[in-house]
Amino acid sequence: MRNAIVIDELVITSDNAGAIGQKDLDVVQVPDDVTSYYSARVTLLEQLAAGALPHTIIMLNFSSVEAWPRYIVGIERLFSELSLPLPTIQGSTESNIPTLQSAIGLTMIGRRVFKKTAYDFVDLQWYSYGIPLVGQQLLEHVDASASIKTIIAALQDDIIEQIIPVGSKGIKYEIKQLLDVNLEQGDLPFNIDASAGPSTVVILGLKKQSATLIEQQFPAYLHRLI
């Protein structure tokens, strides 16, 4: 678990995106449904990291009234691709002041559904899954980002014990926070300091006896870290 708030069995996670969308002054120009798709992706991965699945989404839309249905489309697409029930979506839109750049905030509220076993992190083997991608790189190499569907299947099969979504500070930073280890670049085919954008990389912790299984279930973009 990384950034979730846990209250009893409730798990609360959030993400936001700014200056990414279809307004003229947005830094990254993409359709609004793409923005919400990837923001929902990050928030959902944080739910999975806590062993949860969401039942409610709260959306804060700072872009426009017109953007709301486009954001809904992106969220619906994510859950449809994963064959997961679409959570209830509520929220608020800034409709008094016109904004010059797009902005959205998502909060998911879920409940724990995956059994989490307490392990000393140093007793697990650690892998990265996916390639660090951000902005235009992601749009050009979508298939290289970590597949949430594959991750959920591995959770259901008890193959992985821990999930750490990687953010803007990169894999090396996350490993340092997790294990207090200075990860070396070595032969890894990507920059370990690079931003993983909307969590295109996740760090997976698993028991040693699951190593063969994970290599079968994750045929591409899986790399042993420690």
Largest sheet: 5 strands, mixed
Structural category: alpha+beta
Helicity, in percent? 25-40%
The residue-averaged pLDDT reads 94
- CATH class bucket of the largest domain: Alpha Beta
* Number of β-strand runs: 11
Report strand order across the widest sheet: 1-2-7-5-6
Q: In what range is the share of β-strand residues?
A: 25-35%
Distance from N terminus to C terminus (CA atoms, Å) equals: 18 Å
Name the poorly predicted regions.
none
Order of helices and strands: EEEEHEHEEEHHEHEHE
Indicate the radius of gyration in whole angstroms.
18 Å
- Could you name the CATH homologous superfamily of the largest domain? PurM-like, N-terminal domain
* CATH fold assignment of the largest domain: 60s Ribosomal Protein L30, Chain: A
Number of helices: 6
Organism: Kurthia sibirica
Protein name: Alpha-ribazole-5-phosphate synthase
Any overview of this molecule?
The protein is of the alpha+beta class. It has two domains: 5-112, PurM-like, N-terminal domain (60s Ribosomal Protein L30, Chain: A, 2-Layer Sandwich), CATH 3.30.1330.10; 121-224, Phosphoribosyl-aminoimidazole Synthetase, Chain A, domain 2 (Alpha-Beta Complex), CATH 3.90.650. 28% of the residues lie in helices and 26% in strands. The strands form three sheets. A five-stranded mixed β-sheet has the order 1-2-7-5-6. It has a four-stranded antiparallel β-sheet with strand order 9-10-8-11. Helix 1 packs across helix 2 (67-81). The model has no long low-confidence stretch (mean pLDDT 94). This is Alpha-ribazole-5-phosphate synthase.
